[in-house]
Design goal:
Length: 287
């Protein structure tokens, strides 16, 4: 009788230990089902690729609403679905000008569609419409649609693609994040934007000077909306077309925080990036 009781107590003790161990091992996933990847560090965020292996597929130009492009995605199926991001190039440019962003962002746990526009001369509103069409294609039609969480989507773009990003964020408030890069738009007021928006400008941009584009865009977004403005010291209008660690870290952190609701990335947003590469940074700080 004593032996049987001892064995029962031992089994109960083991079961309790395993239950506690499981809870300790994955408390964040229990609280946040969207969290993906290891705890972030400077080394992880600044590396040329993140913790996920990636692959890519081509999107044909015959799709409806935009001009095709390329999709980048994590190859693992063990972590469930991922947030989706559509990115537009700028005036006269093609996706190849920004293509480094595809695998870089995907390797941190996102499905990225880099688009070709219907024509290289498309204006911001058209580019915004095409970004939304690309997201719709990504979640409804693409061969990787089962990998994408349709409730967690974001947009980004360069120059007129950045202006289109603002238009898309204003038009579809269900988006989780927006990142205009050196944005250009004749419309300077975006008081209707409620989507968390990170604007990145170049201090020496002469095509879309920050004083008449990025900064007015940022200030026009209501203070109640989460927003940030990052200005790169001495950067020209074309900074997104070259691999840039500061841009990559900020984009990944913003997307992780707002697409994945992952508060582990707060320290990279508030107080935000600093150092010789940054001439200005403003942020409402995540709420």
């Amino acid at each position: 009788m004593h032996l049987r009781r001892s064995r029962l107590l031992a089994m109960l003790s083991l079961a309790l230990t395993l239950a506690v161990g499981a809870a300790v091992a994955s408390p964040a996933h229990a609280l946040n089902p969207y969290q993906r990847g290891p705890n972030p560090t400077d080394a992880i965020l600044e590396a040329s690729s993140g913790p996920y292996a990636t692959s890519s597929i081509s999107v044909p130009s015959i799709v409806s609403g935009f001009g095709g492009g390329r999709i980048y995605y994590p190859t693992t199926t063990a972590d469930g679905t991922f947030g989706g991001i559509a990115i537009s190039p700028g005036f006269t440019a093609t996706w190849s000008s920004l293509s480094w962003l595809g695998p870089r962002l995907a390797s941190h746990g996102f499905v990225v569609i880099g688009i070709e526009t219907n024509t290289i001369y498309d204006q911001p509103t058209s580019r915004g419409q095409q970004l939304l069409a690309a997201l719709d294609y990504l979640v409804n039609t693409s061969s990787v649609r089962t990998r994408v969480d349709s409730s967690r989507l974001a947009v980004a773009g360069h120059s007129m693609g950045g202006g289109g990003t603002l238009w898309a964020a204003n038009s579809r408030p269900s988006l989780q994040a927006a990142i205009p890069l050196a944005p250009w738009n004749t419309d300077k007021s975006w008081s209707g934007v409620r989507v968390p928006t990170l604007i990145v400008g170049g201090q020496s941009d002469t095509v879309a000077p920050v004083a008449t584009h990025s900064i007015p865009f940022y200030t026009s977004i209501p203070a109640a909306s989460e927003k940030a403005y990052l200005e790169l010291r001495s950067a020209s209008h074309f900074f997104p077309q070259t691999v840039n660690t500061t841009v990559a870290v900020s984009m990944v952190s913003w997307l992780k925080r707002y697409v994945d609701d992952d508060t582990r990335y707060d320290p990279w947003l508030c107080p935000g990036p600093s150092g010789l590469s940054v001439s200005d940074y403003r942020d409402t700080c995540p709420a």
